[in-house]
Amino acid sequence: MSIFAVEYVYDAESAELRAQHRPAHREWLAALVEEGRVLASGPFADGAGALLIFTAESEEDLNNLLKQDPLAVGGGISGLKTTEWQPVTGAFSHLAS
Predict the structure, then answer these.
(1) How distant, in Å, are the alpha carbons of 39, 43, 44, 56, 79 from that of 48?
(2) In the chain, N or C terminus with fewer CB closer than 10 Å?
């Protein structure tokens, strides 16, 4: 199991779409927290995007999962970056391979 940092980028024009899909997006994330697939998530203070920390078998597995996010399905995400992450200290370091 690998850890991935995922950055969502939001356009200012998509604020209404995000507001519409946010409840379903947060329910989706909460279910993934229960499964141990999401370690942390939250929006950037400036509203330009969000950072999400996932566990996944592979980047392909992660990308397939991200396609199911109601915010993505609804068109609220304008950009996406995924990076495998290997924390060496702190709360998630014990999970790193």
Answers:
(1) 21, 8, 6, 25, 10
(2) C
